[in-house]
Specification:
Chain lengths: 595, 239
């Protein structure tokens, strides 16, 4: 297929609508293998967009490439749980096998190997994406097999299917995961209660957003319902990018009827007729199944016009694919991305319930929040509120990974203690748990009696267990790298601050840091919390702060004794001079005390 | 109501719909800013105009005034944060004030003086950035770009051209030109564009007028950026 043909097909598929430029780019790249400048120019012309706008997308989204990549594009998931399971070593094997450096493409154009942010397979890692499709449970053996398949240019479709197997690993069920769900029952229940009735039940349930912030769902829906305008939208935030979380992957794989009906119920309550599932690019493997379900729902009257025969209940859903970008999990950034722009968080106010997608009232809710709406429709708000705590009603899904015997998804009533979760997942003697992912909270054994709830330890679901001998400094450093990579670049404190943090952590890791660097890191963390544009920058220093506060020896054993170590490594700086002078005698080196 | 806010404990009257920055300017109160320009849509990216509104940090260029707001602008804590922001902008690029044509007229430099920046504090990053001298009348020196997107907005909203864009995530963010070659000469940019004269630093320079006004006799050589004369001058520009 020529570049022109690939662009034509992609543009035609999305009816030449510039709002879908990101989808056009994804499709065109899938056909071409990367996004050459000619493709950018042609897409810009065909969609009547500035070329810079199209290029900004290719530069922003990590799964779009402005340089040629291999026919096989291998991306190792780089979460700390992947690393602890040996991903870095496996990546080195594969790179060595092909004689490549990281992010380099082989001379024959066959293969490129790189890293990517957490792909949401922490319970079955180490994991990778090959041409966008997830492969789990990497081992040395599996890496050898993959190398052979790439060498033989075996099409991905012919690779052993067990490579692509993604398990749900559901370890504990309460109401959401434990109650059988009859398709259509959520819709029928909502229709039976009427638009006002379902709103009342959602209010009574005290359901709060499961994405982490815990905003009352009824307030959000009310806001959008009362906002002026006829065209309103429901967006399912399935951009599950927080390192260490994967429960939405499981919901979308095995409980999608609940999620999609939950969207329709939200639409019914708000008076919205269109819904989007914003699916993170890393979950490409879920797309076809989800699309099949949407088509089936439409065919059987559970989506479309007059749903289940209820006059005026019109709602339809489409899948919109992300292309790699953690920040898009932030609601306003997600809507920017949905409009075909780089995912930069918007200035607030206005709230999205007044001006979201295309400036129209929009509700953006987490996958899990929407799934709960079916429970509330069927059982009523009071029954829902019966579970959990007063301020945190219902159940919560936790994505448990790391050093434990039974990683996977656990459903608990809100208020469960951390120690209970640790006991259930078979964590022998953990030294810490990272709750809420890279932006979350590092919890130590003296805090294990704390509870998972909005009023205590609030989380979107990530629960990474660190056992004995795990180096918490390396955990913090991994998270700092992550934020430096994922910062969108819009505001000064986050754009520059995350890079400074990374450089300071690297300096300490290389044994050249002192208390001066630590003090700067702490100051930066507080500074970024106060001045950043969105939650990414506000929370980017959390892990460093927590590690310094709670695992000081992990830092201290790396620090040099001086008050200050200069940025320039003089010994290293002399290397080119030694090489030029053909000298390596002791006099050509600094004395060890100075080095 | 009486349309009054308190800025650093001084009552300031405002017109409904104004941002905090606009209300302050109209009253001759200086709130530092870099990405903001009165002729352009507020951006909110540089964060220099961060103020405390009723106990919360807000960006004054995007946050609307509401009657009775208690706003802190000139406090040691906020000024220290602004100094850090200016330092970050300095170390992120390659800024060599003594040889820069913009010295004395440069808002970043003026902010450095205003907030008593005695050193860059953070390690210099020495990024590799491209110069674009292709255009007959205008030079693009990306070493000095602070990614404020004034030129982006001016070209798009005032000139109707969209010559510029800032692309790339995090520290890879950079200014690019909308032309087939990526060079300014191949774009429809003209020296008469608003975007040619809106850069707060020396990243967009008009050729053949360099140093015509001697250093020492320039805008901020006479009075600091916070001086009332300069605040009012910017208000004039907006009209």
């Amino acid at each position: 297929m020529t570049i022109g043909e690939a662009v034509d097909a992609a543009v035609a598929k999305y009816r030449g609508d510039p709002l879908y430029v990101l989808q056009v780019l994804r499709d065109a790249q899938a056909a071409i293998g990367w996004t050459p400048p000619e493709a950018i120019d042609q897409i810009a012309t065909r969609l009547a967009l500035p070329r810079t706008r199209v290029r900004s997308l290719v530069q922003f989204y990590s799964l779009l490439y402005d340089r040629p990549r291999g026919a096989y594009r291998v991306l190792f998931s780089d979460n700390i749980t992947d690393r602890f399971n040996g991903s870095r070593e496996l990546a080195r094997h594969l790179l060595a096998h092909f004689g490549l450096k990281r992010s380099e493409t082989s001379a024959d154009g066959r293969v490129s190997v790189d890293f990517t942010s957490c792909t949401g397979m922490c319970d079955q890692g180490p994991a990778m994406l090959v041409n966008g499709i997830a492969i789990t449970r990497l081992s040395e053996e599996r890496i050898h097999a993959i190398a052979a398949l790439i060498r033989a240019r075996t099409p991905l479709e012919s690779w052993p299917s067990e490579f692509f197997q993604v398990d749900d690993n559901i370890q504990r069920k309460v109401s959401l995961l434990g109650t059988p769900f009859v398709p259509g029952s959520g819709l029928d229940a909502a229709i039976g209660r009427g638009r006002a009735g379902i709103q009342d039940e959602i209010k009574r349930s005290n359901l709060r957003g499961r994405g982490g912030a815990g905003f009352p769902t009824a307030t959000k829906l009310d806001g959008a319902r009362n906002a002026p305008g006829v065209e309103k939208f429901i967006v399912c935030n399935a951009d599950e990018g927080e390192p260490g979380t994967f429960k939405d992957r499981v919901l979308l794989n095995s409980f999608a009827p609940r999620v999609l009906e939950g969207m329709a119920i939200a639409g019914y309550a708000v008076g919205a007729t269109r819904g989007f599932v914003y699916l993170r690019g890393e979950y490409e493997h879920l797309r076809a199944k989800l699309q099949g379900l949407i088509d089936e729902m439409r065919a059987s009257g559970r989506l479309g016009t007059s749903i289940r025969g209820a006059a005026g209940f019109d709602f339809d859903i489409e899948i919109y694919m992300g292309a790699g970008g953690y920040v898009c999990g932030e609601g306003t950034a997600l809507v920017e991305s949905l409009e075909g722009k780089p995912g930069r968080p918007r200035v607030k106010p206005p709230s999205m319930v007044f001006a979201g997608y295309k400036g129209r009232p929009t509700v953006v809710d987490n996958v899990e929040t929407l799934a709960h709406l079916t429970e509330i429709a069927i059982d009523g708000g009071a029954q829902f509120a019966h579970r959990g705590t007063r301020a945190s009603t219902g159940t919560k899904l936790l994505s448990v990974s790391g050093d434990c015997e039974r990683p996977g998804v656990y459903e608990y009533e809100f208020g469960v203690t951390i120690s209970r979760v640790l006991q259930d997942c078979g964590a022998a003697s953990p030294i810490a748990v990272q709750i809420g992912g890279a932006s979350g909270l590092l919890v130590t054994p003296d805090e294990f009696s704390r509870r998972i709830a909005f009023e205590d330890v609030s989380t979107a679901g990530a629960f990474m267990v660190f056992g004995q001998n795990r180096d918490l400094f390396e955990v913090a450093r991994n998270f700092v790298d992550f934020f430096a990579h994922e910062s969108c670049g819009f505001c000064t404190p986050c754009r520059v601050g995350t890079t400074i943090q990374k450089n300071l952590m690297d300096k300490i890791a290389h044994g050249r840091g002192s208390r001066y660097e630590v003090n700067d890191l702490m100051r930066l963390t507080e500074f970024m919390r106060r001045t950043s544009h969105c939650g990414l920058g506000e929370s980017a220093g959390n892990a460093v702060r927590d590690t310094w506060t709670k695992f000081r020896p992990a830092f201290e054993r790396r620090l040099v004794a001086q008050d200050f170590a200069p940025e320039v490594d003089l010994e290293a700086a002399l290397k080119p001079a030694r090489r030029a002078a053909h000298r390596d005698d002791p006099a050509a080196h600094l004395t060890t005390s100075e080095a | 109501m009486d349309n009054l806010i308190n800025i650093d404990n001084q009552p300031v009257s405002f017109k409904p719909g104004q941002t905090i920055l606009e209300a302050a300017k109209a009253a001759g109160v200086y709130i530092p800013h870099l990405c903001h320009h009165p002729q352009l849509k507020p951006h909110g990216g540089c964060k220099l105009c961060t103020v405390m509104v009723n106990g919360r940090y807000q960006t004054a260029c995007t946050f609307k005034v509401v009657n009775g707001q208690e706003i802190d602008v000139d406090t040691p804590e906020l000024n220290a944060m602004r100094r850090s922001l200016v330092q970050m902008l300095f170390i992120e690029g390659n800024h060599l004030c003594p040889t820069c044509e913009k010295a004395g007229n440069c808002e970043l430099q003026a902010l450095g003086y205003e907030y008593e920046m005695m050193s860059p504090h953070f390690a210099l990053q020495y990024p590799t950035r491209e110069v674009d001298a292709s255009h007959p009348d205008v030079l693009i020196d990306r070493d000095r770009c602070v990614l404020c997107e004034r030129c982006v907005r001016a070209s798009r909203d005032l000139d109707g051209k969209s010559v510029f864009a800032v692309v790339g995530k995090g520290h890879e963010a950079k200014l690019i030109i909308n032309s087939p070659s990526g060079l300014l000469a191949d774009s429809d940019f003209a020296v008469t564009d608003h975007a040619a004269r809106i850069c707060p630093v020396g990243a967009i320079l008009i050729k053949r007028v360099g140093y015509a006004q001697p250093i020492g006799e320039r805008l901020f050589d006479h009075e600091p950026i916070s001086a009332e004369a300069n605040v009012c001058e910017i208000v004039e520009e907006a009209k």
